[in-house]
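>> received
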Amino acid sequence: MSTAPLAGPLPGPTSGPGHTSGPTPGGAPAPGGPAKWRRPRRSSVSTGPTALFDAPGPRALARIRWITAASVVVVLAAVAWAVYLFGVNGQLAPQKWEAFVQWPIQRYLLKGLGNTMLGALGAAAIALPLGVVLAQGRLSGQQALRWASTAIIEFFRSMPLLLLIYIFFIALPRYGVNPDLYWKLVIPIGLCSGATIAEVFRAGILALPAGQSEAAAAVGMTHAQSMRYVVFPQAVRMVMPGLLAQVVVLLKDTTLGYVVAYSELQYSAKVLVSSTGNLIQTYLLVTALYILINLAITKVAEAWGRRTQRRYARAGARQVATGPR
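>> returned
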């Protein structure tokens, strides 16, 4: 007898005859619920789950509004006071900012920004696969593999990143291990972040109901197939907020490039300050660039979350409309 492909997450241990469940995380009605799915209305405050946080309740929404209003007032007052002090001390004079409209200065900062993104991308290329492998190893049934993975994870989680960078920059070259400046920064960041990401993945896998893997085994899947097609994809969706936070950490960790004289954005700003003497103006501009990058990462994550929700909502609606096959 052939088995039809599953359109969404497999039923958990609470599924069964007589059990009526609410809507699925994607927004589609579960079997036993209403047959028609309706798109929720948009509001000024996000009330649905996203890739960054869970859905807040009514009291949480009220607190969010009050805290947001108070925070906006405090931030605006602080910004106004800072602008006043800058103006009094001549930091807003046009000659202090005219250097940043010159193309050579802009090109120099853009090159530093590109090196920052390249360093974060290289560290992520090391950290994400390493995190997946270490998480699988720590959950392995083989004791030796589990102990080895646990030891690696705990070692790099407890190792200060700056100390690890110094090891790659000072200690290892004395023994003939002397990679390029880029790798002296990227490899330590990737190792430390990989250990943290491994724990994020492991937490997501353990948070899934046992019924997911049991249902996969019931339709004839092996343990590897169950982990690949059922457990791990759902775990990734659950731990996406932690992964996004780690991406931001990766980006900020590249500011330690000054240790190895890697020309990332922060190091480029330091060199520019020593050349022009405009310390406040340079670091304000660099701060604004980092904020814009993090906002862009957040917007991409929110768009990804909305797309995932719509995809599973459509899959759930089709499953309810067609019924079991």
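>> DSSP finds eleven helices and no strands in the chain.
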